[in-house]
Amino acid sequence: MSSELRKLNELIHAILPANRFYARKLGPPGDFASLSDFTGRVPFTTKEELAANHEQHPPYGTTHTFPLTRYHRFHQTSGTRGKPLIWLDEPEGWAWILDNWEWVWRGAGVKAGDTAFFPFSFGPFLGFWAGFEAATRMGVRAVPGGGLSSEDRLRLLLHSQSSILCCTPTYALRLAEVGEQIKLPVSSLGITKIIVCGEPGGSIPEVRRRIETAWQARVYDHHGMTEIGPVSVSSEADRDLLLLRHDSYFCEVIDPATGAPTPFGETGELVLTTLGRHGSPLLRYRTGDLVMPVPHEDHFALRGGVLSRTDDMVVIRGINIHPSSIDAVVRSFPNIAEYQVDIDQRHALAEICLTVESDAETASALARKLRSFFTLRIPVSPVAPGTLPAFEVKAKRWNILR
Q1: How many domains does the chain have?
Q2: In which band, very low, low, confident or very high, does the pLDDT at 255 lie, cut at 50, 70 and 90?
Q3: N or C: which end of the chain has fewer CB within 10 A?
């Protein structure tokens, strides 16, 4: 019996029949004879299904295997795919989350004795809490940078002698801008590694190159979800490959329309089963992340990281446009700070336009490059620096009018 199949059978016996959500979906527990038996008998779990369950059984839903008194961690999804969901963990489940984050840190070459800086305010979503606690558990000195301005964070970063930075790609670029403004270039701060998460920028070569040029540091991508946990880290050997934590997750990639498995080299939706989070499990969870699986060792990895999300893609004049594609083109212009994408879907033919913090000449050059890349005319309007919102955590640059 394979390790994955053994863990799937352990999972199903650990959660049934106590977990009401999955007891209703699956019925009595029974061993799976093979991985195909598991995928054939277990239906997908969707975010919409979880949202409906939480709505019917407020505030926590019925996805818990144990009595609520055992749960000591309270987290909430970011709400990028609808109303935020509260997600709870008991001590054993939280330890499993930290194990996975330690795997991420080790994958980026972080070790005990290093100093890592976290330049964000700790909100209810899981990612930064887990990253911070996992770092301290493995002997990394973790420096909290919440409740400070960007200028003060840069000064604290210098004072703390940190060599590791953990933030979103957007905020890494934002800190570089602020450093230029206050005459404290981020390349002088001693950062050697930057672990980025929350957005797909770390696996977009143009974005990664821009961050690395500003900081003179190596960028590692990572992604995860509050309801799933930490999932991936960049390959040390191949910059464009995102490795999955197959020891902790049963990973699939499917055609979003049919649910059929996606062949290697083609784009599909990532589906994950949490093998060790027995207290708050998810089985065959449709993440909404569009990825390209490629063979890697005994499993598969993701070429180009998380390419987009199933609900983010827009179709303009028959052209599929993903946020990561727009980001790649915009970030190839070093003198563009922030930008915004406006999409008007109120009419029969959708329209798209960009607003960028740049001069008119750069905006015109960007419009030409966008037209060449997408074979589509996309108007670009320049505005003065500081006009558009700046983001610390997940950037919200797409404004869709429906």
Answers
A1: 2
A2: very high
A3: C
